[in-house]
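Might I ask for a little of your time on a matter of protein folding? The record follows directly beneath this note:
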Amino acid sequence: MYIKNPLCGPRRPGGGEKARHKPMAYAYSDYITMDDGVAKRTQLRLHIQEVSQGVTPDVAKGGSSRSSGQMAVYLQSLKDELRELNRTVKQLAGGNAYLVNLNNA
């Protein structure tokens, strides 16, 4: 059984079950490595935008189908992370502390 990794690009034509995937190159997926909460939030928003472009309606036509369900789950997890990060940054902003090291949080 073949399970498509949501972080991988389309399969090669005629590749069958053993086709290799090339990971999609995301420009803003490095948000996770950032220590500054405000910069991390900005990068995460940009990453959500680029992942959103990969989520399309499910299509079933001519004996084949394409589903972006796994990407939608990944996108939702990013949105949940952004919501939590927004809370963290807002709490700290109340005391004028805009720089946050989130790696030790």
User: Anything to note?
Assistant: The first strand starts at residue 59 and ends at 61. The helical segments are 37-52, 69-93. The mean pLDDT is 75. The CA atoms of residues 44 and 90 lie 16 Å apart.
